[in-house]
Amino acid sequence: MSPAMYNRLWLAFLDTVQMVGISALIALVIGIPIAVFLVVSAPGGFFEAPRLNRAVAAVVNGFRATPFIVLLVALLPFTRFLTGTTIGVWAAIVPLSISATPFFARIAEVSLREVDKGLIEAAQAMGCRKWHIVRHVLLPEAFPGIVGGFTITVVTMIGASAMAGAVGAGGLGDMAIRYGYQRFDTTVMIAVIIVLIAMVTLVQFAGDYTVRRLRNR
Amino acid sequence: MAALTVETTAVPVHGAATEKVATATRVASAAGAGSVRFEKLGKIYRSAAGAVNALEDIDLEIPAGRVYGIIGRSGAGKSSLLRTINRLETPTSGRVLVDGQDIGRFDEDALVELRRRLGMIFQHFNLLSAKTVRENVALPLVVAGVPKKQIAERVDEVLALVGLEGKHNVYPSRLSGGQKQRVGIARALVHKPEILLCDEATSALDPETTLSILKLLKDINRSLGLTIILITHEMSVIREICENVLVLEQGRIAEEGPVWQVFGAPKHDATRALLRPLSRDLPEDIAARLQPQPVAGGEAVLELHYTGGESAGPDLSCLASALGTSVRLLHGTIDRIQGHAQGTLLVAARGVSESNLEALKGHVGSARILGHVASDV
Q1: Does A137 touch chain B (CB under 8 A)?
Q2: Is residue B228 domain-resident?
Q3: Do B128 and A140 touch (CB under 8 A)?
Q4: What residues of B are in contact with residue A214 (Cβ under 8 Å)?
Q5: Where are the domains of chain A?
Q6: How many Å apart are CA B186 and CA B162, to the nearest integer?
Q7: Closest-CA residue in chain A for B188?
Q8: May I ask the CATH class of domain A3-215?
């Protein structure tokens, strides 16, 4: 591989980190409130709202049912409306975060739902308001599970970001297709795969480590 | 004087109003607040399988400062009844009055205020695993908006009270069952409640730890003067610390009264069934040799039951004078509950007949001849 190619690989890596990083952050910030809402508004929750719950759940399922590559194309007008362009890193961040948010919300929801009902009862008995229960009971108790779920989300997003090359977003996936596949440069292909494996391993390790620390206290 | 009037009448800001309520509560608490009354309380659970009467026609007064026990088999409605006091459970009919106030009328703010006057502990402790002991105990004060410095002082105080100094920064998973329940008690006491609700608080603990927790509860009741209402399915817990007991059976009151009376002379089958684990059956070796008819040269075996209402308690000299000096103690238990000695004794005596039992009247709750044995048992 030529020094120019190394440089390209480095830039592609940065693109991927940027796309995944920003989208993951958006998924985190929007996904957790959705997850909390789905749990507390479910029948038997302490903020019961069955109709709204079903509506939100339906939207979440709708986005999850759509394959990312389809979503990427279907969202083009919306992406153009938000970012003014349909190519580049920012154009990829829109579909990437819209796809990752419901995915992450569902995983976080499972962790939140598993919080012992007795803890919620204890919180109510000591005079906690609904917001206190979310803030002091639900989120902290589900936190290890949420971190684990976020790790899975980020790994999935690294995979999905490869498809973002289809909208000219750049990144590692784009590089593997253009140089490795279309120009038959096997070395580049292998180099990209190694970088991707390293990224996923690192994310998974960091996530597992954090979860273990949280669970082990 | 004028300033005082202004202060007690003008409460423009909501926060200030809450403060006033809190102060008023503290004063009332010192004057012995902490009474609960149930009026015609009923609770029906409706499900696909049909309606279940969990509670029916509960009329009951629990005076302030008592240690009050509610006992019943599983599914008798104890847990539902306890939870109506802090409205974790809403009754279908009837009223619950805490310090004379109908809590069914409370809006969300008043309900939160009420719950801050009540503490509750649980069978499975319900401690937050993500928070340290200190943070767990502090939580009721944190959500009530108490200043940090006051919280720290109060947390130290209650942790010392329950005997957990030095465990401030430990996570609950590192504690034993007994220590966890002590944290639960500290958390329940941290906002100085008038009433402590105990939901099977010792059912998950071993016998030794159970005793230490019950002793702690007793001490707290004495030193802080707060009302303790506990539910359990173990009569031994009631015997250990309660003054009054309510026996629930299928959602209804089976019987109610001072513990020594209910234990000494149970009126309801449910009570007798719950007491059975505490009573001893006729020892097998005696049962095997028992004959219905008197045996020449043999002895009669008598069962003497003391309810605790006898003037002098189990009086041995009176036994000797009624049954003759050959009377021997075979087997039995006498417990002292609230100063009343009660229990069952099995004695053997020579040449005893029904007429001798007359002489025991007034000294023994009840006496009967179980049978006869040939010679020494």
Answers
A1: yes
A2: yes
A3: yes
A4: 130
A5: 3-215
A6: 6
A7: A126
A8: mainly alpha
For residues B94 and B103, is the Cβ–Cβ distance under 8 A?
no
Q: Identify residue A48 by its one-letter amino acid code.
A: E
Residue of B nearest to A133 (CA): B143
For residues B116 and B36, membership in a common domain is answered with yes
Alpha-carbon distance of B273 to A52, in angstroms, equals: 50
Average model confidence (pLDDT) across chain A: 92
Q: Is residue B41 part of a domain?
A: yes
Kind and range of the H or E element at B221?
Answer: helix B207-224
Contact A121 B126 (CB under 8 A): yes
The answer to whether residue A133 neighbours chain B at the CB level (below 8 Å) is no
Q: How far apart are alpha carbons B209 and B179 in whole angstroms? A: 9
Give the chain A residue whose CA is nearest to the CA of B83. Answer: A125
> Would you state the pLDDT for residue B175?
96
Asked if B143 lies within 8 A of A217 by C-beta distance, the reply is no
Q: What is the mean pLDDT of residues A63-73?
A: 89
Please give, rounded to a whole number of angstroms, the shortest distance from the CA of B23 to a CA of chain A. Answer: 17
Size of chain B in residues: 377
Residue B290 makes CB contacts below 8 A (sequence gap 6+) with: B282, B301, B370, B371, B372, B373
Measure the CA–CA gap between B181 and B306, rounded to whole angstroms.
36
Q: Which of B273, B303, B331 is the last residue of a domain?
A: B273
Quick one: B73 and B21 in the same domain? no
The angle subtended at Cα B174 by Cα B169 and Cα B177, nearest 5°, is: 115
CB-based contact (8 Å) between A4 and chain B? no
The answer to whether residue B349 is domain-embedded is yes
Question: A42 at the B interface (CB within 8 A)?
Answer: no
Q: Cβ of A116 and B126 within 8 Å?
A: yes
Average pLDDT per consecutive 10 residues, chain B (377 residues; last block may be shorter)? 38 42 41 85 90 93 96 92 96 95 94 96 96 97 96 96 93 96 97 96 94 95 95 92 95 94 91 84 84 86 88 83 87 87 89 83 86 77
